[in-house]
Design the sequence.
């Protein structure tokens, strides 16, 4: 048997429930942690520091920091930052293994979950639970390695868990949203067609050209997001489903939904979901459907060749 | 933080049994800060309500009520507890309260409990190379644990989560590999979480072993989550009703030895222990069947079904101890659904699942002490009675085989006096003369 584990951590993935894209223009967004995430196990390892992610890439991913040039790739830099913020020297005899079913690169917060799970496992080695503030600051540094200037939504939701309302520039950017009962979601996804950055910059160009129309669209999304918070806190699934559909329609109008996004949303609704929308940047990627009876929705999406799973949104 | 002062009058309520029901309610309202709504919940025989009940089971047709008794006098690790107990059997609440009072007068119970570690089992069959499969699982410990924790990220965030694995191999007649996930559920009983984790690692386990995963479910033999309690009472404190303390202590130890060697006695002995423990499990919204299953399996852990408790004498002191799995929680599951459970939790005032487990172990030990003391005293009383009856028979002039016959009839009459013995002897002579 390999040596006894000396630290463990985990972090959930996330979805945007309302307000993606509009959030860039100062409108509110609602985001929530999901049940699926990443776990991390730290072990004593004289060859360390080593980071292993056996499920990522075709043959798994291994990052060795000892004697290596850490600045070579983002993963190495991220690992080095995680060691630094948790007080481990750059030559510490520790290896960390990450694993989990959270899909990568489709807007479900995999890089934030990676950062938070890794930091938690390394902090656990010292037997210390980091304060939320320290965890957020550390996760933000790692997110910057991957994303330059992250909005902060991903790692904040992932570190807090539960459901949060966010508004950029507000005096208190994050406010907890408390589902009176867990929200039954189905998540389905397909490959992304382009990056988040591309999707955001294309929309930016259209907004610049036609800002009076797009601002009205974003105002409508903001109103739906605020109504969505009320529906979540009231446990009113019928209304919430209708608001998902509305938000999706506005995003279609904004031109960020691909034909495959439209197809997934359509399949989910036809199979009994109360409402469905893209989640995240769109242009492929993931959709969410509000589905108290998840089985038929997951089955219909899988039958059409999409990956899908059921999850729940709970209060933190 | 609880201090002895704040909790000083929580456990001891002299004369509680003599109060009528409204008086008991004003007493507990004052001591445990219960409001009118709490008391109404206790008065109602069906606080669960059938709307709520209908969401819990299939074909629901109603709600069943049971008495809630208050186990008193518990001092455990220096803290005082009044322990709500849901039980239909008479004498259980009285027995635990009486024994707790005796133990309290001599320092109270000492107790401890393990972390909330549950075992989740993953069964692997049809592995083409079992030895290699076992190796692969052991080498992939870190990855399996990471995958398990990814399924329940919140649990890891709260300081719990999958901590370790064990790999067990069974050969003839049924060959299989069983992977254990050891999961710290902290204050939850954890059944749903550990089942989800076992489910979450199934695909990885198949990949690593080349076998097929069948069952993935928690084990109720929660032997990494044991609770222990012990007590020590000077033998002279056991004296009473004409019995010497040493006599009672010896009777208790003999009764325990009976359970230790004989499964037929141990089953009854442990049933008594569970009279106390189940009553607290129900009152706190926990799954008493899982506690039962764990207890009895643990009692047979070395292949011989024996006693969950131990009693011995040393230096004029009677010592008792108990150890058993205690998979109980203070969050999640049904602990939040039932209104009466909420009120019971207010009265009990435990903060963590470990604290609850310690209280339950002490209640089990207390119940066992009460049962053994009663049985032993009865035995001693019988012994005393037959001794007295024989003396009375001899004094009345019985000889030889007559002595036992007269003594037996005296005991049956419940009147052990020389005058009665003379009557019985005369009766015997008449019968013999016919």
Sequence:
């Amino acid at each position: 048997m390999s040596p006894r584990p000396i630290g463990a951590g985990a972090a959930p993935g996330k979805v945007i429930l309302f307000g993606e894209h509009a959030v860039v223009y100062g409108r509110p967004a609602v985001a929530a942690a999901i049940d699926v995430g990443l776990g991390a196990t730290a072990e004593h390892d004289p060859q360390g520091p080593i980071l292993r992610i056996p499920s990522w890439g075709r043959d798994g991913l291994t990052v060795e920091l000892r004697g290596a040039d850490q600045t070579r790739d983002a993963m190495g830099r991220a690992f080095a930052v995680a060691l630094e913020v948790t007080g481990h020297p750059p030559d510490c005899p520790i290896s960390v293994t990450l694993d989990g079913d959270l899909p990568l690169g489709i807007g479900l917060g995999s890089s934030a979950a990676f950062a938070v799970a890794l930091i938690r496992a390394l902090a656990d080695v010292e037997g210390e639970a980091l304060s939320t503030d320290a965890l957020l600051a550390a996760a933000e540094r790692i997110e910057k390695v991957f994303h330059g200037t992250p909005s902060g939504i991903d790692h904040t939701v992932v570190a807090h868990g539960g459901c949060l309302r966010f508004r950029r520039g507000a005096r208190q950017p994050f406010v907890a949203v408390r589902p009176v009962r867990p929200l039954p979601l189905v998540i389905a996804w397909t490959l992304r067609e382009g990056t988040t950055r591309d999707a955001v910059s294309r929309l930016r160009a259209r907004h610049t050209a036609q800002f009076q129309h797009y601002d009205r669209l974003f105002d409508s999304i903001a109103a739906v997001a605020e109504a969505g918070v009320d529906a979540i806190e009231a446990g009113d699934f019928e209304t919430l489903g209708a608001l998902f559909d509305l938000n999706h329609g506005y995003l279609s109008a904004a031109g960020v939904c691909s034909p495959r996004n439209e197809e997934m949303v359509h399949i989910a609704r036809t199979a009994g979901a109360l409402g469905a929308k893209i989640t995240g940047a769109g242009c492929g990627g993931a959709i969410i459907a509000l589905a108290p009876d998840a089985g038929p929705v997951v089955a219909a999406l899988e039958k059409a060749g999409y990956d899908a799973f059921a999850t729940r949104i709970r209060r933190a | 933080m609880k201090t002895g002062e704040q909790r000083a009058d929580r456990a001891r309520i002299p004369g509680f049994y003599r109060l009528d029901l409204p008086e008991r309610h004003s007493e507990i309202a004052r001591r445990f800060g219960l409001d009118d709504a709490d008391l109404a919940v206790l008065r109602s025989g069906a606080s669960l309500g059938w709307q709520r009940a209908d969401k819990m089971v299939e074909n629901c047709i109603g709600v069943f009520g049971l008495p809630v008794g208050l186990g008193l006098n518990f001092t455990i690790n220096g803290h005082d507890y009044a322990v709500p107990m849901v039980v239909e059997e008479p004498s259980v609440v009285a027995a635990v309260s009486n024994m707790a009072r005796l133990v309290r007068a001599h320092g109270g119970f000492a107790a401890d409990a393990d972390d909330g570690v549950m075992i989740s089992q993953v069964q692997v069959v049809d592995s083409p190379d079992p030895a290699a499969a076992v190796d692969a699982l052991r080498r992939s410990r870190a990855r399996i644990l990471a995958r398990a924790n990814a399924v329940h990220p919140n649990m890891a965030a709260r300081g719990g989560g999958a901590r370790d694995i064990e790999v067990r191999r069974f050969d003839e007649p049924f060959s299989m590999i069983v992977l254990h996930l050891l999961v710290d559920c902290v204050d939850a009983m954890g059944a749903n979480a550990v089942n989800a984790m076992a489910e979450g690692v199934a695909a990885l386990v198949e990949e690593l072993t080349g076998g097929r995963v069948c069952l993935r479910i928690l084990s109720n033999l929660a032997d990494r989550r044991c609770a222990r309690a012990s007590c020590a009472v000077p033998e002279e404190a056991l004296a009473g009703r004409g019995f010497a303390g040493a006599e009672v202590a010896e009777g208790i130890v003999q009764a325990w030895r009976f359970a230790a060697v004989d499964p037929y006695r141990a089953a009854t002995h442990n049933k008594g222990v569970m009279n106390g423990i189940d009553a607290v499990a129900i009152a706190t919204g926990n799954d008493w069947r899982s506690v039962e299953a764990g207890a009895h399996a643990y009692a047979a852990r070395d292949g011989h079904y024996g006693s969950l408790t131990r009693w011995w004498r040393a230096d004029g002191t009677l010592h008792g101890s108990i150890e058993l799995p205690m998979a109980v929680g203070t969050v999640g599951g049904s602990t939040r659904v039932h209104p009466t459970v909420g009120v019971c939790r207010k009265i009990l005032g435990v903060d963590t699942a470990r604290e609850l487990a310690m209280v339950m172990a002490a209640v089990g030990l207390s119940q066992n002490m009460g049962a053994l003391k009663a049985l032993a005293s009865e035995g001693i009383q019988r012994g005393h009675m037959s001794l007295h009856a024989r003396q009375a028979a001899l004094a009345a002039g019985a000889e030889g085989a007559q002595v036992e016959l007269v003594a037996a009839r005296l005991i049956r009459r419940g009147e052990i006096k020389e005058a009665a013995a003379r009557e019985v002897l005369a009766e015997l002579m008449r019968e013999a003369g016919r």
About this structure: Chain B has three domains: 16-114+225-379, 117-218, 396-433.
